[in-house]
Amino acid sequence: KFSKQRINPIIANCRSLRDKVESQEKISGKTKEKDTLISKVFPGGHVSLSTSTSEQSLRSEACQYIAFDEVSAYEEDCQGSGDPCGLALGRTSAYDGRKKIFFNSTPTLKDSCRIEREYLTTDQRKYFVPCLECGEMQVLTWDRLDRTTDIVLYRCIRCDFGHIEADKTAMLKAGEWRPTAKSIDGARGYHLPALYAPVGMWSWKSSVAQYIKGLDNAVEMKVFVNNCLGEPYSDDNIRVIDPNDIENLAEDYTSDLQLPIGAAYITAGVDTHPSHADILVMGWGKEGERWVLEHHVVQGDTNQDETWQEVYAHLQKVYLHPSKTLLRIAATCIDTGGH
After folding, report:
1. What domains does the chain contain, in order, with CATH numbers?
2. Percent of the chain beyond pLDDT 90?
């Protein structure tokens, strides 16, 4: 899809590119590759397209230049082999000091957004444009859009002059990229929200309309923040879970028949199979907090009374609470669907 909708039209509509790719196809013989959907061959090199979900394509060949598109949408782990970006970057090891890496993406959720992490390591360049009245160079920001008039105006941070949408053409032409931070390793980063879209494309009025839609709809507000402001979305009701957070919640209740202090009620579930029965014992606390207390397997034909006698005996166990109270299994559910 990417090749058909984005790469092929660029080649078809750019004469210099078209001539190079076509000429390579014409001279391609049995010993040379032809142009395909995932590989574009031209004199002196080629472009290969890979997917972030395929370990094989990410490891397949050495590359001097790599461009990652919509990198924030990548999975953190590619087929159990690790970070897809890390796998792809390994292909540049033969070009240390000569390689170029490009990351591009719409942001997603704050603190889990890959493009945000990459951008924060760069010199964080922003596009400064002049006020057409006083000449003050400034970054276009949402808070300077005046939405109180019939038309949306952009107010200068210095003189408060109101720019109309058509003024963007002159402002963009006279603008310049300026770094706003110190890069960790010399990398350059560029941030360009939709407020900079040229006249005839996404307008300030469209951004305001999207913002209004998001006032009563968190999903629409996420679209506004990600697409219009070009920033990662942050919501107090959404928390990105770190695997270490889950590990830190683990409690030590490994001693035999010893309950966690919060467990006040015990239940069991029995899953039956022709050759055995699985018993899962759970402890329950306030607000649905629960603990797996025990998993026990009773081997034997579940059509025989002897097997069930052993199951029932196990369900009679007594558990000691840290308060010195003895608790028994209060309820048991038996699933006979597997037998």
Report:
1. 251-335 (3.30.420)
2. 54
